[in-house]
# Entry
Amino acid sequence: MKTTAARTLHLSGMDVFVYADSAAASLAAAEHIARTIEHVRLSRGTCVLGLATGSTPTQVYAHLVERYRGGALSFQGVSTYNLDEYYPIAANDTLSYHAYMYEHLFRHIDLLPARAHVLDGTIPEPFVAEHCAQFERFIEAEGGLDLQLLGIGRNGHIGFNEPIDLPVERARGLRTRMVELHPTTRADAAREFGSVERVIPRALTMGVGTILDARSIVMLATGAAKAEAVARALAGPPTMQTPASLLALAPQKTTWYLDEAAAREVV
Ligand code: PGA
# Structure
């Protein structure tokens, strides 16, 4: 089954599917992921997924869990790598992305725990760079990411690759590393942390380069709060001032799934 988009656009070389609401956009993104798992596993026996957290993908995970429960999808042979994690944070902290992934996906499905990789927010600081390099090596050793799921921040970030003044060629080379969160990201995270002051100000994140090296990229954005960032990212040209605009550097493999609210400023 394939959920049909209300509108299909082609912007900066990328396919953009627009759905009536977030439920339909999330279902379409989940179907894309399920198809990738099935096709890639059929040809290679494994499938390597890059996963995202935040409020946007919760419905995607709910659909994947439903498919698993209905016997239509298995995660046997699948490996996962998450985009990011706060730093420092304990895995059992309810605000951690470890906890998020366990709650929304991992505890419900037949994914081997040893194959679920989330950057470790408890690594002592002197060892963080090595931990990040090892994360990259793990992905490489598995043959690279077959699919990376993304959300977009109100400031246009992907993962925790925040807007900065950096030439596109250098941004393209960014790998997994420690970063400082942008004020907009901290303001948005205040919802979960209780106040801006309580938001953990640093994080570990895959780089723009890690993301762009994935064989396919699924961007899901829903809600009016994302409309401006989505419009800027799709208008181009690619700039690290709007990190999601860099997806246009890999146009053939990138698919955007939007609801009408998130698409309303796209021209
Ligand atoms: P959100 O975050 O899904 O919680 O809006 C998306 C993002 O910042 O990438």
User: Anything to note?
Assistant: The domain at 7-254 is CATH 3.40.50.1360 (Rossmann fold). The CA atoms of residues 66 and 72 lie 9 Å apart.
